[in-house]
Amino acid sequence: MRRSIFLSALVLCGAIAATTMSVPTMADVRVHGLVPGTQHSPSVAMAQLRTYVLSYDRADTTTAVDMVRLALSQNGGEGYQNIPLPGLPSNWYWRPDGHIAYDENTGQLWMVGYARTIGVPGPRVGVYVTNGTVQGNGLISWREPLELFLYQGSSIIVPTLALATGDGTGVAHVLLTQYFDSGVQRPRLYRVAQDAGSATSQDIAVTNPVGRYHTGPTLAAGPNGMVVAGWFTGAAGQFDPPSDIVTRTSHDGGLTFGPEELIGQIGFSADSPGSPTRLSQRMTLLIARHSLDFPATRLAFWPSTHFYGPLLDPSEVFFNSDCCAGTAWNTFGSMLPRLPYSYEVHPAVTMADDGYFYLGWHDFQPFDPDSVSKYMVTRLWNMGAMASEPEPLASATTDWDSVASNFGGMGWQSAAAASAGRVTFAWSDHRGTDPDVYARTFVAGGFELTEGCGDTLEATAGDAVQVEWRIANWNALFADEYSYIVGSNRPWTDGLVPATVVVPANSFADVTYTITVPDSAADAVVTLFPNARDHVRSHSCTKYLRVHALVGVEPGGAAGAVALSAPRPNPSAGATSFTFTLPAPAEVDLAIYDLRGRRVATLARGEQVPGTHAAHWNGTGATGAGAAAAGIYFARLTVRAGGKVQTREQRLVLLR
Length: 656
Fold this sequence. Notes:
By secondary structure, the protein is mainly beta. The protein is built from 2 helices and 50 strands. The strands form 11 sheets. Strands 1, 2, 33, 34, 35, 37 and 40 form a 7-stranded antiparallel beta sheet that branches. Strands 7, 8, 9, 10, 11 and 12 form a 6-stranded antiparallel beta sheet that branches. Strands 27, 28, 29, 30, 31 and 32 form a 6-stranded antiparallel beta sheet that branches. Strand 46 (586-594) and strand 47 form a beta hairpin. The radius of gyration is 34 Å and the shape is elongated. 46% of the residues are buried. The model is unreliable at 1-23, 268-280, 290-294, 306-313, 406-411 and 552-559 (pLDDT under 50).
């Protein structure tokens, strides 16, 4: 009994042709400020192919000049140029730890940051926010900055900031921590109108506000009005106990927030009391906006301890994810497989158009004689529980101790953004003698089915049909494993088992999935659906199969007295065999014909006795013609007996 369906797979791998798509693999690029070698604390935003990096510039810490720089790359991250910042009121200047975000719904770039007066009496620290439309040349038509907060005291206690957009309302959200109101510290959230002309604020309630610090704020905004605010909290002046990592979530665009949720902890070591590390070590939050399986859910990443601790007290990146669409967190656990005595700190996360989460971090080896690190990135799926093998983004190792000495407790030390099938990471770096900000943009374009979709195949009932197509992996950094299969609008393909193939980064695989058409198949045009799936998404295309029923066989019934078997093998690379059955003596003519109806070879001719007879074709043409060309041929049996003529026909595919 012939099996009606079987599976085979053929995989050919190679580089994606340049004529199909150019996939740049950008190197890391130095983002220069006013004076090269004085930058850190980056913030990143992407507007289609444009990338913006805001960073702290230590060129001058005393005089009346802006201490942040905004750089623009117009060409997908290949190079940066400084562009103007929003103008501030007279005698005010932009100071460290600003943040930017791009709202895809409104096409506006937002910026929030500190301003400070130098040598002028009165308030010395303010928080300002503004936005502007991205123009054709990439510059921003900034609105007048809006004052959110002024510190009135005699000393400077700088609030820590976070910014988020994209909840669908057009407003921006700004979170402040480490400011004091009547001696009590608590987080404060501002909702800034779309035109940046006004803002409303509210203090977010915290558990046991008296005698505790609340710092390291982070924000995320997503669809359906979801806003997540998070921060570190602990006993003021005590660094040995771990700090709690807490969040509160709003489902109405930041108007009201749910209860405080403990999602993790971060440790501080006893050898560094008063360390500013609690300011620079922040968690990063993400609301998944494109996930097919888990829409509008939350992810959080943070370092478990800080790098000033004992060398035998390493740090890992820990994470927590949301099990229930913004209503409950899972149990937190370690994210990255730790190398011995390594520190994995300063995580940054974003979500790309391919549906994966991309996580970056500094990986520091404290026992390395050169005290070096590299900036690493991995790709996550299954709500962060699964990860690709990490890849280095930095082209050179970093002098970690020199970088650490330049942090100054200000802001994030790495940042990430994604847009238009690309991802950008920016991080604080130290190569040679200068600390600076480096950035790298790479393509994360998912995959596509190409080369073979849309065509029509031919088959006769009983044939084994090879369905071929190409799986192209457009990711510039990561290989991917795909499962692939063929479905159809017929039950023959029900219950098939997928095959798998690993496609390298920026490469393709040509795959073949073979199905056998049942002997009883009738004349029809069958729709086939080649399909491939990675870890998060699936893609299908359409092919067509024109099926020819066996001549003399009623669909679903048995063969008549005169029969011609299907060729074996079929397709064939050369020789193939047939059998034909006669119920009575007859004159037969069995020949091979091409698609034009020309006789290619004669296999049997003349009187034959009743019974089953074998015939063979070695893939050659008429005498002296040599090997027949690859293509589709037909074996035609003509039987004459008792004044009647019967014809049977089978289709054959010849491969070369």
